[in-house]
Design a protein that fits this description.
Strand content: 15-25%
Largest sheet: 8 strands, antiparallel
Bound molecules: 6-O-phosphono-alpha-D-glucopyranose
Number of strands: 26
Distance between the termini: 11 Å
Helix content: 25-40%
Oligomer: single chain
Number of helices: 18
């Protein structure tokens, strides 16, 4: 998704902005650009393609400060040099970079064109530059405020005025803007990863905020009213966690980080004295949680699938009806929101627009919601106001791996807590706490089988279609396995409940269509082995992810994972499927960390 970087201070802006753009590359984008203020003028460079394509356009030591820069992910207008940001007004006095969508851009554009403005791009964003120029205001903030009063839509916005290079003005409505505080210099970004190299002291703006940023500080205002205090916050991200280290890809590094990420999500949260868990950020009185009659989980992509794992954990351990739904669907169907339903919003980034909108809808209708989020201080975390932070460290690869696992574990922590408030016995609580504590070492044992999984992945390298099947607890594992494979390898992969196979997809099973079967040793083991027989009878290749032991059927490949407690088995069964997807993608030579057309956090509808 689109990214913003800005710099104001004594240094030349370009190297800082370009480095910031590189940090934002992981989010997915199709073009990039930079604007520098120098000698009362603007220098603007922009290019379709990667940040390194933009680098080639720049002179050796580009001069100018302050500056703003952008990575664009096309919504209105194809990816092209012209449509890349920054956009300028007709006199090239103002430059803007914009994340989000100006919904009334068509009408505003027509009005501006009627006044003689000639547009240079097809974007909705360009109207902002012309509107700001048309304001004829005393100060940049007044010009920006005046323009934004005419705009319907979402924005994270940074504006530069070449005639007044002592300020950058930023504004936020539905798309993140974060300020970074340095020593006599300030940074602006849409994502903390573009800031951490320079400062860990950051300020998150809220929707409706406008800020004046100067080298020596910042002031925040509401769009229509007076000043408002937005206090800085220290973030705990280390710059090393944003580099690949000895790994070829962030995805591989983040898969390897899982034992440590699990330790962190568990840290301080296992309370063996009462065979329960302790979740500091939840802030619900026990009585409030006991009033809940139903749990509804909302998220998108892998966050939604982690929610499916979570719903099963809650039903099993707390015996409350629980259901996960894609947040994107939920928000559009005028959902029935009942006060005795407890809502859980899941989002790694805490910025996914559909999930945020779902949270706002739930809150608007008066229900309780908490978040399971990785990025501290992110919009969804703040909108929910309470919840469980994953503390998994930054996840840079577009596809989720470690945060999927950490989210599933956060659900286990919550399900045990809720279960122990209800009728989960102390013995069962203790059994699960022991199993949770064992997970990091068990994940290490799975990661040690990487070579075997890589060999097996070769069988998928030339495949066009693949199936992933599982029953009950195995089904979300199959869903996530299929999603991972399609995201990084571009192989068409579909997940089906194993029991549904004969109601349709069996027609497609053939020697060239492999099926991955999630086969825990549980009460459904026999049923699942029958499914394998059905596939084999149609000469479909079969690969199983299972627990150690003899298999009663012949299959084409086996990956074994250590046995946990049945409720936690899905967490471990998923890990080899991450490695499978990674190695299939490696064999196919795809762009693993930034798959085509995908973005890390989808901040538009
Ligand atoms: C995008 C990404 C997915 C991710 C989803 C939700 O679609 O490509 O990998 O699972 O967003 O992201 P979130 O940050 O809300 O967990």
């Amino acid at each position: 998704m689109c990214g913003i970087v800005g710099y104001i201070g004594e240094q030349q802006a370009a190297p800082i902005l370009m480095e910031g753009l590189h940090r934002l590359e992981y989010r997915g984008y199709d073009s990039a650009g930079i604007a520098l203020a120098t000698g009362g003028e603007l220098k603007v460079f922009k290019s379709k393609g990667k940040v390194r394509d933009l680098e080639r356009l720049l002179p050796d030591h580009p001069k100018g400060t302050p500056g703003i820069a952008h990575t664009r992910w096309a919504t209105h207008g194809e990816p092209s040099d012209r449509n890349a940001h920054p956009h300028c007004d007709a006199r090239n006095r103002y430059a803007i970079v914009h994340n989000g969508i100006v919904e009334n851009a068509g009408a505003l554009r027509a009005q501006l064109e009627a006044k003689g403005v000639v547009f240079r791009s097809e974007t909705d964003s360009e109207v902002l530059a012309h509107l700001i120029a048309a304001m004829d205001a005393e100060t940049l903030i007044e010009a920006v405020r005046g323009a934004l009063r005419l705009v319907v839509g979402t924005y994270g916005l940074a504006v530069l005025d070449s005639k007044r290079p002592d300020t950058i003005v930023v504004a936020r409505n539905g798309s993140p803007v974060i300020l970074g505080i340095g020593e006599h210099e300030m940074f602006v970004a849409s994502d903390v990863s573009a800031l951490v190299r320079h400062t860990q002291n950051v300020v998150h703006l809220d929707d409706g905020d406008v800020a004046v940023v100067r080298a020596d500080g910042y002031e925040t205002f509401t769009l229509d009213g007076g000043p408002i205090v937005r206090a800085p916050l220290m973030i705990d991200w280390q710059v090393e966690s944003l580099s690949k280290g000895s790994f070829d890809h962030f995805m591989r590094k983040e898969i390897a980080e899982q034992p440590e990420a699990i330790r962190r999500v568990l840290s301080g949260r296992l309370e063996s004295r009462f065979s329960t868990t302790h979740i500091g950020g939840l802030e619900f009185a026990a009585r409030e949680l006991l009033e809940a009659r139903r749990i509804k989980i909302l998220g998108c992509g892998s966050a939604y699938i982690a929610g499916c794992v979570g719903a099963q954990l809650i039903e099993q351990l707390a015996r409350l009806p629980a259901h996960a739904e894609p947040a994107s669907e939920f928000r559009y169907r005028n959902p029935v929101i009942e006060p005795d339903t407890l809502y859980i919003a899941v989002s790694q980034s805490g910025e996914t627009f559909d999930t945020l909108s779902a949270v706002q809808e739930v809150k608007r209708k008066g229900a309780r919601v908490f978040g399971i989020v990785n990025v501290v201080g992110s919009t969804i975390a703040r909108e929910c106001g309470r919840g469980i932070y994953l503390h998994a460290g930054p996840e840079v690869a577009v596809v989720s791996t470690k945060t999927f696992t950490s989210t599933a574990i956060a659900f286990a922590l919550f399900a045990i807590y809720l279960g122990r408030l209800r009728d989960l016995s102390a013995a069962n609580g203790a059994r699960l706490l022991t199993a949770l504590a064992a997970l990091p070492a068990q994940v290490e044992a799975i990661l040690a089988q990487e070579q075997k999984i890589a060999t097996l992945a070769r069988a998928f390298a030339n495949t066009r279609d693949a199936y992933f099947v599982g029953r009950a607890a195995g089904f979300p594992v199959a869903m996530e396995g299929a999603l991972k494979l399609k995201e990084v390898s571009y192989i068409h992969a579909e997940a089906y409940p194993a029991s549904e196979l004969k109601h349709g997809p069996l027609a497609l099973i053939a020697p060239e269509t492999p099926t991955v079967i999630v086969l825990p040793r549980d009460e459904l083991f026999a049923k699942n082995t029958s499914t394998i027989e059905e596939i084999r009878a149609r000469r479909g290749p079969t690969y199983v992810v299972t627990h150690p032991g003899t298999l009663p059927v012949t299959v084409d490949g086996v990956i074994e994972v250590p046995k946990s407690e049945p409720e936690l088995d899905p967490i471990l069964l998923n890990i080899p499927l991450q490695l499978l997807a990674y190695h299939v993608a490696l064999a196919r030579g795809t762009d693993i960390d930034q798959p085509r057309n995908l973005a890390k956090s989808v901040t538009v509808e």
